[in-house]
């Protein structure tokens, strides 16, 4: 009997998986079974951490906004916090998300101070006149 030459499809699939795992250490980049296991694990972690990255950045933006707002208000002897700022933004129907507010807080604090002082003035006016 003559020898049968195997096809190239399985080899092509394995080399593609090996290219994915070429930067892994030890058997994780050498052995086909461990490569496939590590590929599944890596893709699972990447999928999971995309969501956690979003949560992390939202927390970071909230901390930055809160720090700037409280720092400014301490100078004026008025208690104002992040939660009250966001609440008043929603009541005035201003569509500024937390990412934009955090960028404003870092790059141009005076602009954020102006926004918060305008909101405080409007809210104080409505509360004193009995509109709310």
TrEMBL record:
Gene Ontology MF terms in the entry: rRNA binding; structural constituent of ribosome
Which PROSITE patterns does the UniProt entry name for this protein? Answer: RIBOSOMAL_L20
Sorted alphabetically, the Gene Ontology cellular component annotations on this record are:
chloroplast; ribonucleoprotein complex; ribosome
Q: Provide the alphabetized UniProt keywords.
A: Chloroplast, Plastid, Ribonucleoprotein, Ribosomal protein, RNA-binding, rRNA-binding
Task: Report the Pfam families cross-referenced here.
Answer: Ribosomal_L20
Cellular location(s): Plastid, Chloroplast
Q: Indicate yes or no for the key word Magnesium.
A: no
Question: What residue stretch is flagged as signal peptide?
Answer: none
Domain of life assignment: Eukaryota
One GO BP annotation of this record: ribosomal large subunit assembly
Q: Sorted alphabetically, which InterPro entries does this protein's record hold? A: Ribosomal_bL20, RIBOSOMAL_L20_CS, Ribosomal_protein_bL20_C
The text of the family note is: Belongs to the bacterial ribosomal protein bL20 family.
> Could you tell me what this protein does?
Binds directly to 23S ribosomal RNA and is necessary for the in vitro assembly process of the 50S ribosomal subunit. It is not involved in the protein synthesizing functions of that subunit.
Which PANTHER family does this one have?
39S RIBOSOMAL PROTEIN L20
**What name is this protein filed under?**
Large ribosomal subunit protein bL20c
Give the organism the record lists.
Retiniphyllum pilosum
Give the source lineage, highest ranks first: Eukaryota, Viridiplantae, Streptophyta, Embryophyta, Tracheophyta
């Amino acid at each position: 009997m003559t020898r049968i030459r195997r096809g190239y499809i399985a080899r092509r699939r394995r080399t593609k998986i090996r290219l994915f795992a070429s930067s892994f250490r030890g058997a994780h980049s050498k052995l086909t079974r461990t490569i496939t296991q590590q590929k599944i694990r890596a893709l699972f972690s990447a999928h999971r951490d995309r969501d956690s990255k979003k949560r992390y950045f939202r927390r970071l933006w909230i901390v930055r906004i809160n720090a700037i707002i409280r720092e400014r208000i301490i100078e004026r002897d008025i208690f104002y916090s992040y939660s009250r700022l966001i609440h008043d933004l929603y009541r005035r129907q201003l569509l500024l998300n937390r990412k934009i507010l955090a960028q404003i807080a870092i790059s141009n604090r005076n602009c954020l101070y102006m926004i918060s002082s305008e909101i405080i003035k409007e809210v104080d006016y409505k509360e004193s006149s009995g509109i709310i």
